[in-house]
Amino acid sequence: MAQTIAIPGQLLGPSSKYVAGPGTHIHEANLYSSVLGTVTIAQPEKKIAPGPAKRLTKIAGLPSSSAQLPTISVSRTGITEKREVLPEVGNVVLCRVTRIQPRQATVAILVVGDTVLEAEWQGVIRPQDVRATEKDKVKIYESFRPGDIVRAQVISLGDQASYYLATASNDLGVIMATSEAGNVMYPVSWKEYRDPETGINENRKVAKPF
Amino acid sequence: MADRRRINGPVGATTPPIFDKPAGPVATKTSDAIRKIFLKTGITPSASGSAYLELENPNPQRPGNTSLKLSCTVHGPRSLPRSAPFSPHIILTTHVKYAPFATRQRRGYLRDSSERDLGVHLETALRGAIIADRWPKSGVDIIVTVVEGDQDRDSPESQKDDEGWDMMNVLSGCITVASAAIADAGIDCVDTVAGGVAALVCEDDKTAPTIVMDPIVAEHGSILAACCVAYLPTRDEITNMWFKGRLPGADMMVYDKLMEKSLVACRCANRVIVQELNETVKKGQGIS
């Protein structure tokens, strides 16, 4: 199938027929492309067994009739292997711990979702975001060490320097760690990694293996 | 201020050797057309996006004749330096730099005021096209290098007072090439911005001044006024306008006509961008 090419500013269709996806913008009730790439139209997914309806906390419009509309987006896949993305709130990222302090762990974000980043973005994990329970007992140095690879979720754009990340979930936390002796360790519990050569346990906020 | 760390060329103007061959036929461009544009994206592999623009040289036989050659690189979006304050949108930085050999008068390595001026104009032109809040906390650097500055070396006597009319052409080229490079880098834009120039020229004292699109400065007797516009064709919006010169008093419509002609020039340039961007995508699909 020949894909349609879109260049910035190209008209894609009226906003009454499509929902704006990534790489598009709306101007005067029309959808336009905002990046160079190929157009993809995704049909809306059928909702399977919706959970208990959430109580509305803000005034929303009509229970979105737009949910039935197909999403149109412009993607740059195929043009270039290099793809620059920004960490966004809600993304799961992989990062390396660069520095630990009592009040925070500083990390370098390396991967967002499936995309390896070109640039390195700085993130911060605060003690209250390390785990969901017993937040007051969290100690950063019992959760992370410099060099660990951590799977975390972006919770805020943060301040000028760093994104705020959280590991407050079972599948988030340290996924790769090296011991003080320099050996790659394996997880033994939700809070411990063990060095296979020396047999010493070290404390970490361990991510649950899949 | 002499730069002692580098090997500098002669300070004053230099003239290339003049050969004893009669110059070829002098081709003249019609006043209602712009010169042909060569535009290519992705020429700098290390940059996030890049483009190269060259204007057709109407008289390639004449040795001293040059056209406009621009190279643009876009670096980013990348994280801001630690010292920078929080920014909810992308920080745009533009640099326009003449190569030392780009103009008749040799340029220094340091940026002078005209280059800074061009950079500011370029930034304004691009700022209106970029959707800045798609990239919070990031910065992008746009660097345009002027390899050849559209100054005819053959006719130094016809332009004794260099009034900088060629800067208009350089700016319009900068806008066009930066627009292509930004699209190549994948930065969100509302439209492809294009630059165009129109000028009010006076060939001699007897004839009435006429309006010319994309003026070749060396080919005209004198330029009275010129207008460089950055334009978003699908939105029908102008992001930057630079008007310079003096209009003959009586006719107020000349101002409007100059604007209209430069918009036509923008539309012409934009068609080149659109075609080249389409080819960029096709080329990328061919590889993958």
TrEMBL record, chain A:
<dbReference type="InterPro" id="IPR019495">
    <property type="entry name" value="EXOSC1_C"/>
</dbReference>
<dbReference type="InterPro" id="IPR039771">
    <property type="entry name" value="Csl4"/>
</dbReference>
<dbReference type="Pfam" id="PF10447">
    <property type="entry name" value="EXOSC1"/>
</dbReference>
<dbReference type="InterPro" id="IPR003029">
    <property type="entry name" value="S1_domain"/>
</dbReference>
<protein>
    <recommendedName>
        <fullName>S1 motif domain-containing protein</fullName>
    </recommendedName>
</protein>
<dbReference type="Pfam" id="PF14382">
    <property type="entry name" value="ECR1_N"/>
</dbReference>
<keyword id="KW-0271">Exosome</keyword>
<dbReference type="InterPro" id="IPR012340">
    <property type="entry name" value="NA-bd_OB-fold"/>
</dbReference>
<dbReference type="InterPro" id="IPR025721">
    <property type="entry name" value="Exosome_cplx_N_dom"/>
</dbReference>
<feature type="domain" description="S1 motif">
    <location>
        <begin position="88"/>
        <end position="169"/>
    </location>
</feature>
<keyword id="KW-0963">Cytoplasm</keyword>
Automatic annotation (TrEMBL), chain B:
<comment type="similarity">
    <text>Belongs to the RNase PH family.</text>
</comment>
<keyword id="KW-0539">Nucleus</keyword>
<keyword id="KW-0694">RNA-binding</keyword>
<keyword id="KW-0271">Exosome</keyword>
<feature type="domain" description="Exoribonuclease phosphorolytic">
    <location>
        <begin position="34"/>
        <end position="187"/>
    </location>
</feature>
<dbReference type="InterPro" id="IPR036345">
    <property type="entry name" value="ExoRNase_PH_dom2_sf"/>
</dbReference>
<dbReference type="InterPro" id="IPR050080">
    <property type="entry name" value="RNase_PH"/>
</dbReference>
<keyword id="KW-0963">Cytoplasm</keyword>
<dbReference type="InterPro" id="IPR001247">
    <property type="entry name" value="ExoRNase_PH_dom1"/>
</dbReference>
<feature type="region of interest" description="Disordered">
    <location>
        <begin position="1"/>
        <end position="26"/>
    </location>
</feature>
<keyword id="KW-0698">rRNA processing</keyword>
<protein>
    <submittedName>
        <fullName>3' exoribonuclease</fullName>
    </submittedName>
</protein>
<dbReference type="InterPro" id="IPR020568">
    <property type="entry name" value="Ribosomal_Su5_D2-typ_SF"/>
</dbReference>
<dbReference type="InterPro" id="IPR027408">
    <property type="entry name" value="PNPase/RNase_PH_dom_sf"/>
</dbReference>
<dbReference type="Pfam" id="PF01138">
    <property type="entry name" value="RNase_PH"/>
</dbReference>
